[in-house]
Design brief:
By secondary structure, this protein is of the alpha+beta class. Helix content is about 30%, strand content about 30%. The chain is built from 5 helices and 8 strands, in the order ββαααβββαβαββ. Strands 1-2-3-4-5-6-8-7 form an 8-stranded mixed β-sheet, sandwiched between helices. A hairpin with a 5-residue loop joins β1 and β2. The protein is globular and about 40 Å long.
Length: about 170
């Protein structure tokens, strides 16, 4: 999959986006996309106020091996703007289990993009031999919780204001 061209994805409202693996060259695009998110969306994604990513965080996010660390980027073909990203990272000490996260630009939320990308990421994780996906989400993030449930995730635990969901692959 690394280096593959974009895959065209049609959303339930008929909108079309291009999806491809994230690349190191996307570092600045990723930074700009996170800065463009509303304060609320960044808070829900990072479970804390987060005005911007640090250089170290950006380096970590684009450091992918496309096996234990993978990310898919959705691009609006009309503007070339990055509009969503889903990623997984191997959970240390839990072979076959990956932690997933998704972020969708504010103006693209509620259109099915996050769920569609999550399904693509699950296929990618399965192809790489992973067996379980986990997601930690703030209890107040009802839209992400609904998306996880629609995609086969079940509540597996809670820790303070975070809920942990899990889905076998």
């Amino acid at each position: 999959m690394p280096g593959d061209g974009p895959e065209r994805l049609t959303l339930r409202d008929g909108a079309v986006v291009d999806v491809r693996p994230l690349r190191r060259a996307d570092r600045e695009r990723l930074d700009a996309a996170v800065r463009a998110l509303s304060d609320r969306t960044r808070y829900l994604r990072f479970a804390a106020p987060k005005p911007r990513l640090t250089a170290r965080e950006l380096d970590f996010l684009v450091d992918l091996d496309h096996h234990d660390r993978e990310a898919l980027l959705a691009i609006d073909p009309a503007t070339g703007r990055g509009i969503a990203i889903v990623r997984y990272v191997q959970v240390p000490g839990a072979p076959g289990t990956v932690e997933v996260a998704a972020t969708v630009a504010d103006d693209w939320q509620g259109r099915g993009l996050g769920g569609a990308l999550l399904a693509m990421l699950a296929e990618r994780a399965r192809a790489e031999g992973h067996r379980v996906m986990r997601a930690a989400v703030l209890a107040e993030n009802v839209h992400s919780i609904a998306m996880l449930r629609r995609n086969g995730f079940a509540l597996n635990g809670r820790d303070s204001g975070l809920l942990e969901y899990e889905r076998p692959l």
